[in-house]
Specification:
With about 475 residues, the chain is α/β, with parallel strands linked by helices. The protein has a domain of about 300 residues: TIM Barrel (Alpha-Beta Barrel). Helix content is about 25%, strand content about 20%. It has eleven helices and 16 strands. Strands 1, 2, 3, 4, 5, 14, 15 and 16 form an eight-stranded mixed β-sheet that branches. It has an eight-stranded mixed β-sheet with strand order 6-7-8-9-10-11-12-13. Helix 3 packs across helix 4 and helix 3 packs parallel to helix 5. The protein is globular and about 70 Å long. The two termini are about 30 Å apart. About 50% of the residues are buried.
Length: about 475
């Protein structure tokens, strides 16, 4: 399926008024041009529906219209919509579209060759100035594979080589000729940070700093302090300009601070405009990061990969931080040694706990539902009550919360985007497959219809020339 979306012209003067506000709040210079594909009203009946809110509706019905979820009802009520496509989902399950909060699709594209290695800018320990979206290759075949696994939204992040790797971007999983055509409208950007072995190894091997964990923390703190000064400098400049309001320009007109792309990003995180996503494995380091966030006045949205998060599940929940985790990755390096398969279930357990199943893998993103099933099963074996409607939140509601898009997607509630997956059965079965996938109400994938199985131009190849 080829993309039919047209790119909107970027409005002139996006940076007009730059001097009137802190740099971190400047207008988006690379705005989303995403436009929902055409859709028709659709009624799905006789389904087992997991709404993403923790609710399960047996023999339920769902109405999608005008790109939104219109109604979700149980068997006691009937949905009627003239000219709607009717899908009888008897024996099948329906969930919100899955959301992967930690992906590198497009920046570490398939086939994995050096030319496609665009995820780590390993030229300095702090590269907050780079944006993952500027590396995204929309033709990565991995996007279509993820769609076949029910993934409708994903955050693409830089890698974890640096203390601060740069900004991430949230995408709608639709075919497009540009990343801007995939860019989730209104989604805040993320800031990828990393602690532990990765940055100290990358730079320690070069005889640079940081080469130790204490060097890691010192590096973060120095940058946060610089960003705080950057904000103060802009505030002072704005105050001076406000005081001069209505006066004619003069020789003593204050000079605005020099624009700094790195500090712009860090200032955005301090001001809550950019969400901090922290790659961190060890419990002690996560506790240090929580203290550092309090010291400098910012919030961590999610700890990613944290194989020891179970050890501090209560503290993480108390701070309102999500744990974006693997089901069972462990032991592949020293800081991953204490991982356990009950990790996700234990992080989910405390009051206010926010557990998320993420992939960090071009293969794992194709079976996020099975990864959640593994975590659910391990939790149940440990004596925890984890029904499917709770585990489903690890892939939908909680993930949307961590990305700052819960008001738009992540649950099947009236008014939200009609991002929906129809599964051939219980999605937590090893035999589960996504039969149909809807994004904003448009049927973008159908396992039984090759015309609705997206293929990128890269996969089509070239026709051999034929001599006349």
């Amino acid at each position: 399926m080829k993309s039919t979306s047209s790119l909107l012209t970027i409005a002139a003067g996006m940076l007009a008024g730059w001097a009137a506000a802190p740099a971190a709040l400047a207008a988006e210079p690379y705005p989303s041009t995403y436009q929902p594909l055409p859709s028709v009203p659709t009624v799905i009946v006789n389904a087992t529906i997991l709404t993403g809110t923790g609710e399960r509706i047996d023999n339920g019905s769902l109405l999608l219209a005008r790109g939104r979820v219109e109604q979700v009802v149980d068997a006691s009520r009937r949905l009627r919509e003239e000219d709607a496509v009717l899908i009888d989902a008897q024996g099948r399950w329906v969930t919100p579209g899955l959301i992967d909060v930690h992906s590198h699709l497009g920046v570490y594209a398939s086939p994995y060759v050096k030319a496609h290695a665009d995820g780590n800018e390993m030229t300095a320990p702090v590269t907050a100035q780079v944006w993952a979206e500027h590396s995204v290759w929309p033709q990565d075949p991995g996007f279509a594979r993820a769609l076949a696994g029910g993934v409708t939204t994903l955050q693409v992040l830089p890698g974890s080589a640096n203390l601060v790797g740069g900004r991430g971007v949230t995408l709608k999983n639709v075919p497009s000729v540009s990343y801007q055509g995939m860019k989730f409208p209104g989604a805040p950007q993320g800031l990828k940070m990393a602690c532990g072995e990765n940055p100290k190894r990358v730079y320690g091997e070069r005889m640079q700093t940081p080469s130790t964990r204490m060097g890691n923390v010192a590096g973060y703190r120095a940058e946060w302090i610089a960003a705080q000064k950057y904000i103060r400098d802009w505030e002072a400049y704005n105050a001076k300009m406000a005081a001069r309001a209505g006066r004619e320009p003069a020789d003593d007109e204050p000079e605005p601070p020099a624009r700094d792309l790195k500090l712009e990003t860090l200032a955005g995180a301090l001001q809550g405009e950019i969400l901090v996503h922290m790659h961190c494995y060890r419990a002690d380091e996560m506790m240090t990061v929580l203290d550092m966030a309090e010291e400098h006045g910012y919030k961590v949205s999610a700890f990613h990969d944290g194989v020891e998060a179970y050890e501090i599940a209560a503290e993480v929940a108390e701070h309102g931080v999500c744990g974006a985790l693997w089901a069972d990755w462990w032991g592949f390096k020293a800081e991953a040694w204490d991982g356990i398969q009950e990790n996700i279930a234990l992080v989910d357990r405390p009051q206010g706990g926010c557990a998320i199943v993420h992939s960090d893998s071009s293969e794992g993103i194709q079976r996020l539902n099975q990864e959640a099933a593994k975590a659910m099963t391990r939790g149940q074996r440990a004596g925890l009550d984890i029904p499917p409607e709770r585990a489903n939140r690890w892939l939908t509601d909680n993930a949307a919360r961590a990305l700052g898009i819960l008001e738009h997607t992540g649950t099947l509630e009236p008014g939200k985007m009609a991002d929906v997956v129809i599964w051939n059965g219980n999605p937590f079965s090893v035999y589960a497959q996504a039969d149909q996938v809807f994004i904003d109400g448009a049927r973008v994938y159908d396992r039984n219809d090759p015309a609705r199985q997206p293929v990128s131009d890269f996969e089509l190849g070239q026709s051999a020339g034929v001599a006349e």
